[in-house]
């Protein structure tokens, strides 16, 4: 009898292992078009602020001053499997977009230009100063082709950027708000700075390739004695142009840094220069916390 039971269990086990997992494939090339269609619908109900109107709400932002904000989620304690982690962090990640004018030569279109992360369910977000620089800096003019600046999620839902609350130029951080239209958004809890060798995970939009996941480790933590805003966490997880402002998470799904920039390393001089590696610099979450009391 036991022999038959064991045979049955083995048969079931092999049958289950043979069941293929259903994997979703999405045409991300269509995301800007989906975003554009949703933008048109939302604009009919309540038009987003023009760039000049938005700039007026950004130039008054506090410089390297913490805002009093208590509606932040507590840090996660449970280590997640990678597949579960990706599903957790994806809804908290945003792409920052511009509506570009066609000037009658072609239709207006949406350009995904940078990344961001939601840190409170009512729409407080973080990205880079250099992403918002033309809006924060009163002396910088806007590009004539740019019509609107707004955020979008992986489903193509669009959110009006309503203003910058606080920022740091040397910290390359901008704390901004979006209009959730009453919805409670998925948001990333603030974690802690990580030591060298600890795991990191990113969800960004390199070269307009939205919601691209990479993983790696902290390679080095570098700092400057005279300006802690210039502290940087250097990681091995890949990112590129368009990833600016994107979130970096720990194994628990907590925000641990913000993508900032890359530095390419070359060997040789002049025409004989050979590319060797790319160093990837991020803003540690301790700097983000300085902007949120």
UniProtKB/TrEMBL annotation:
Q: Know the name of this protein? A: Serine protease
| Classification of source organism | Bacteria, Pseudomonadati, Bacteroidota, Bacteroidia, Marinilabiliales
Keywords, sorted A to Z: Hydrolase, Protease
Q: Which organism is it from?
A: Plebeiibacterium sediminum
Q: Which SUPFAM superfamilies match?
A: Trypsin-like serine proteases
Give one Pfam hit by family name. Answer: Trypsin_2
Q: Does the keyword Protein biosynthesis apply?
A: no
Supply one GO BP term.
proteolysis
Q: Which InterPro entries match?
A: Chloro_Bact_Ser_Proteases, Peptidase_S1_PA
| Recorded GO MF terms | peptidase activity
